[in-house]
From TrEMBL:
This is Kinesin-like protein. The lineage of its organism: Eukaryota, Viridiplantae, Streptophyta, Embryophyta, Tracheophyta. The keyword Nucleus does not apply. It holds the Pfam family Kinesin. SUPFAM superfamilies: ARM repeat (SSF48371), P-loop containing nucleoside triphosphate hydrolases (SSF52540). One of its GO terms (cellular component) is microtubule.
Length: 946
């Protein structure tokens, strides 16, 4: 390991100034000589280095001067200094001779007395802090062999901590800043030897492949050992193992010359929980599926690169196998220099694939990593050309601008476990509620049976009471008859009394006559005798007594007659009243009993209705719980699918990062297509069951519910039903389309818009429904929704619906007038690949149908797509997207080229080149043939090609 002499620090500088913008310029000295033009300022694009807040960041370059070694001190004047440092102005002068020198400016200039601590804090510490925040970073040492690169980067300093290099200090800094409860750190230590990537921690692993992710462009080394570390002592052991396995040799330039490029990769994974609104790197549909607080993981990596030194064979004295090593070292360094030159000059082609070193470092120069470079030089004029080449490499590297990106990922494992616990709780709660509902239902059934039994018993009792009352009525009727007979008998007795009274009156009249006769006799015999007078007086007295007695008898007789009449009338009335009272009482008792029976019956009926209502509400509640559970299961399926896709991408980017004993890169989700198909079929079966039980009219009526959740679930059910061909016409006939379009027009909820647009898209797959949708203003409503939202999933559904309508040539003019084409093209602003895929599909459908109509002679003239600017968009974006999207755009372009009225527009927009490209490079043979046919059949195209 190259160390260099005289590196003892004189002082430690804790505070450093920020590099000024515009670094990388150089000025010429006052001494005469040929002028060398300075680089153009337009080529230098430095970005602010303020802790990672900027999106772009220039490569920072520092230069470090090695002290004179023993050989240079021994020869004295033969090894004069060719370098003069100006640390206060961050410049150095390179002297070719006594009258010719050049001045260069760097981000930092370290003298031969600069401490290892100061070099770390200026060069590597900002990069390490950026890596801790979630960005990728690179620290690299470049220079001639023997100038102190390994001393600067890889010095261990176990005996003297002040001698520690950047590798050890960076690990110490990271370990002190991380929490091992939630964070993970692991390292890989590799070397590039003879253009072969070898693992220094597992020497048996040689010729490790370099894999580049097609989507993210991230480079990975599958098969390289990744070892998780917990403390600095463990890191020391691993670094010592790696250094022992690294190739080194003794040359004239250096006693321990590194014969390979060493690359230490530090992998960081940090947990971070922030609000969903602050997740800049997450997509909107992910934020729609997950809750506000998302468990996030910051993944970053730090590359510390100790390059092998460039050397000349005549100076290093390499022989035999060492010459081959020097060739490969110089070849890889030369390729790195070419890449730096191309990036500095904004060249359209960067020769990254010329060397494995440039492929590994492609993210460090012109990529997404924050990069710091320290170039090491020697003071001796003997190595003037090597020193000048190193300085120019650093100057060109300062012009390279990287675009740093924060890598935030949702911790799907924690989120999945949380959702799984919630689903288990909901499932257990639902099962408990189902048991409670079942027990309540059993109790209600039991009560219902008891009520029915009581009602039956009450009915029997009431029938018996009615029979008893009828018997009593018969008895009363017989009693009334007996009373009438008694009255008749009493009437007869009264008649007898009347006859007796008449006889008594006759006797009284006879007595009166006798009295008159006696009076006459007394008058005749008045003169006969006084005795007879006395007897006459007595007789008169008796007569008076008899008269009084007769009058009293008459009075008594009248009283008796009155009493008899009164008695007869009162007896009849009292008996009638008593009979009526008894009859009324019996009737009232019968009526009250009958009313009480009717009241009991009505109460039982009302109780039965209440029980039925409770059963109905319980069934509805159970159905709502089933729908809610089904929604949660659908959400879990989507999360699993999203997690499996994300895990697939992570596995491609981080293949080989897992080793036995390592805690990194555990796959959180592995989803199989069979389970997904089972889940989808189960969901459709549940929806079909709900549809059969509830009925389409009842489902459609829920679309007008005031409860937003009920509306959303109802629209989802309708959307799933509309996915089946057999249900589409029936939904339209039952008024489902009108309800969906009304929701699009009146609702302001994004979820309603997304699901409703999906349902309309499913209905638009039926040709007979497309005209109905257009006539009811469906395209205009979809265009309005597209103009009001930025949600990618909603835009995808809207674009899919419009794309389905584009497949009907009879609706093209109406679709254009309602703004459908402009809305389709306007949704490109979202930048979402799924939305763009639907846009391309709609344009292809429109162009294909329009081409068919024009070829059949039903319409002529310029394409409606060209009038809305679609052609310009296709020419500008035909090669930017995925293969399927490009295929749709190419197909649309070929169909537009079939119409001769579009010729001028295609030529003016530069479409001839695109047609040529499609005819040669399109992966589909039918598309290539269609493009060739369009070129060969149009004379104007042939003239342009020639």
């Amino acid at each position: 390991m190259a160390t260099g002499a005289g590196w003892a620090p004189l002082r430690s500088v804790e505070r450093h100034g920020a590099p000024r913008a515009g670094g990388g310029t150089r000025s010429k000295s006052v001494a005469p000589g040929p002028r060398r033009p300075s680089p153009s300022p337009a080529r230098s694009r430095p970005a602010p280095d303020n802790g990672g807040s900027a999106d772009s960041c220039r490569v920072r370059v520092a230069v470090r001067l090695r002290p004179k070694n023993s050989e240079e001190l021994a020869h004295g004047a033969d090894f004069d200094n060719c370098v003069e440092l100006q640390p206060e102005s961050k410049r150095l002068k390179l002297k070719k001779n006594n009258w010719n020198c050049e001045s260069y400016r760097f981000d930092e200039v370290f003298s031969e007395n600069a401490s290892q601590k100061r070099v770390y804090e200026v060069v590597a510490k900002p990069v390490v802090e950026s890596v801790l925040e979630g960005y990728n970073g690179t620290v690299m040492a470049y220079g001639q062999t023997g100038t102190g690169k390994t001393y600067t980067v890889g010095r261990f300093g176990k005996d003297d901590p002040s001698e520690r290099g950047i590798m050890v200090r960076a690990l110490e800094h990271i370990l002190s800043s991380m929490s091992f409860e939630t964070d993970c750190i692991a390292i890989s230590y590799l070397q590039l030897y003879l253009e072969s990537v070898q693992d220094l921690l597992a020497p048996e692993k040689t010729n490790i492949p370099i894999v580049e992710d097609a989507k993210t462009g991230e480079v990975s080394l599958p098969g390289a050992a990744i070892v998780e570390i917990k403390d600095l002592e463990h890191a020391f052991q691993l670094l010592q193992i790696g250094e022992a396995n690294r190739h080194a040799a003794n040359t004239k330039m250096n006693t321990e010359s590194s014969r390979s490029h060493a690359i230490l990769i530090i992998h960081l994974q940090r947990s971070s929980r922030i609000k969903g609104g602050n997740c800049r790197s997450l997509s909107n549909d992910t934020l729609d599926i997950f809750p506000d607080n998302l468990p996030l993981v910051l993944k970053s990596k730090l590359l510390i690169v100790d390059l092998a030194g460039s050397e000349r064979i005549d100076k290093s004295g390499s022989e035999g196998h060492m010459i081959e090593e020097a060739k490969f070292i110089n070849l890889s360094l030369s390729s790195l220099g070419k890449c730096i030159n191309a990036l500095a000059e904004n060249s359209p082609h960067i020769p990254i694939r010329d060397s494995k070193l440039t492929r590994i470092l492609c993210d460090s120069f012109g990529g997404t990593a924050r990069t710091s470079l320290v170039v090491t030089i020697g003071p001796s004029s003997r190595h003037y050309s090597e020193t000048s080449s190193t300085i120019m490499f650093g100057q060109r590297a300062m012009k390279v601008v990287n675009t740093i990106k924060l890598k935030e990922e949702v911790d799907y494992e924690i989120l999945y476990k949380k959702m799984e616990r919630e689903v288990d709780q909901l499932t257990s709660e639902m099962e408990r509620q189902q048991k409670v509902i079942k027990s309540e239902k059993m109790q209600l059934d039991k009560k219902l049976k008891e009520s029915e039994k009581a009602f039956h018993d009450l009915r029997l009792t009431s029938n018996m009471q009615i029979e008893n009352l009828e018997k009593e009525k018969c008895h009363l009727e017989s009693a009334v008859k007996n009373l009438m007979q008694t009255l008749e008998e009493e009437k007869g007795q009264r008649n007898l009394l009347s006859e007796q009274i008449i006889e008594l009156e006759k006797l009284l009249n006879e007595n009166k006559q006798q009295q008159l006769e006696n009076i006459s006799k007394t008058k005749i015999l008045a003169d006969t005798s006084k005795e007879h007078e006395k007897e006459m007086g007595e007789l008169l007295k008796l007569l008076e007594e008899e008269r009084s007695c007769s009058s009293s008898m008459k009075n008594r007789m009248s009283v008796l007659q009155q009493q008899l009449c009164d008695a007869q009338s009162s007896a009849q009335e009292s008996m009638a009243r008593e009979f009526e009272k008894k009859l009324t009482k019996v009737t009232e008792e019968f009526t009250s009993q009958l009313q009480s029976l009717r009241k009991n019956i009505s109460e039982l009926i009302s109780e039965k209705e209440v029980i039925y209502e409770e059963l109905k509400s319980t069934q509805e509640k159970a159905q709502q719980e089933m729908r809610h559970r089904q929604g949660l299961e659908d959400q879990i399926l989507r999360m699993k699918q999203s997690a499996s896709d994300n895990c697939a991408e992570v596995s491609k980017a981080s293949c080989g990062m897992v080793r036995s004993g390592s805690g990194l890169g555990n796959a959180a989700f592995v989803s199989k297509s069979g389970k997904l198909r089972e889940a989808v079929s189960g969901q459709r079966g549940t929806i079909s069951k709900i549809f059969e039980e509830v009925g389409l009219p009842n489902v459609l009526s829920l679309l007008k519910s005031e409860d937003l959740d009920v509306q959303i679930h109802a629209v989802k059910v309708v959307a799933n039903l509309a996915a089946e061909d057999i249900n589409q016409e029936r939904i339209v006939e039952e008024g489902g389309l009108d309800a969906l379009l009304s929701l699009l027009e009146t609702s302001e909820n994004t979820t309603i818009h997304r699901v409703t647009a999906g349902a309309v898209a499913n209905l638009a797959m039926n040709g007979s429904n497309q005209g109905v949708i257009m006539n009811k203003g469906g395209a205009r409503l979809l265009a309005n929704v597209a103009s009001k939202t930025d949600d990618p999933q909603t835009l995808r559904m809207v674009a899919g619906a419009i794309a389905n309508l584009c497949g009907n040539e009879k609706l093209h003019l109406m679709l254009k007038q309602d703004g459908g084409i402009k809305a389709l093209l306007g949704m490109f602003r979202s930048g979402h690949i799924d939305v763009i895929a639907q846009i391309a599909r709609g344009i292809a459908n429109f162009a294909k149908c329009e081409s068919r109509v024009i070829s059949q002679g039903h319409r002529k003239g310029r394409s409606l797509l060209i009038e809305d600017g679609v052609l310009t968009w296709m020419v500008a974006n035909s090669t930017r997207f995925s293969a399927s999207t490009r295929r749709h755009i190419e197909l649309a372009f070929c169909h537009l080229a079939q119409n001769e009225d579009n010729t001028c527009d295609i030529i003016a927009s530069g479409g001839i080149k695109e047609l040529l490209r499609i005819s040669r490079e399109s992966p589909r043979e039918d598309t290539r043939n269609l493009a060739k046919k369009a070129l060969d059949s149009n004379p104007a195209f042939l003239r342009e090609v020639q």
